[in-house]
Amino acid sequence: MKISTKTYYGLRAMINLAKKGDISPIADISFEESISESFLEKIFQELRRAKLVEAKKGALGGYSLARSPELISVKDLFTALGEVILPPVCAEHENCPRSSICSTKDVLSRLERVVSWTLGAITLADLVASENGAANKLS
To answer: Is residue 31 part of a domain?
Structure first.
């Protein structure tokens, strides 16, 4: 599984917001996370459409989490940014003659379910806690 740069940066930016717990200007997040401000703005537009962040305009504006870090999973972020958790190997072969005897489809399907469940079980709060050295479900 390869995670896109967009998703990696989005996750870092969301953790940054979760740690602050308040509105943060995009310029600050860009500087603190060493991410291009224009690229980060595009990422936040997608996160805003997915209702994971909120934007506030004005001199004291910026972005904040749309809900508590305990209620935002890594899977939510991956989905919002269009990340495919595990692409189906046989997606382009819908009428595959080996479908009924394929040994790989069950294991790959199980792998996708486990990865999806794991990403859904890890929240931004968990990631902030692990960064702070607290014991949590990432251990």
So the answer is: yes
Q: Are 24 and 64 in contact (CB under 8 A)?
A: yes
Query: Within 10 A of 89 (CB to CB), how many other CB atoms are there?
Result: 13
Percentage of the chain surpassing pLDDT 70?
Answer: 87
Task: Report whether 65 contacts 17 (CB < 8 A).
Answer: yes
What is the span of the domain harbouring residue 86? 5-131
pTM for the full predicted model:
0.84
What are the distances in angstroms from CA 15 to CA 23, 99, 100, 124, 132?
13, 41, 43, 6, 12
Alpha-carbon span 118 to 103, nearest angstrom = 24
CATH number reported for the structural domain that contains residue 61 in this entry = 1.10.10.10
Element (H, E) at 55: strand 53-56
Integer Cα distance of 99 and 105 in angstroms: 8
Sign of the alpha-carbon dihedral angle for 39, 40, 43, 49: negative
Cα(14)–Cα(42) distance, rounded to whole angstroms? 14
- On whether residue 91 sits in a domain, the answer given is yes
Q: What is the token pair recorded at 82?
A: 């269009």
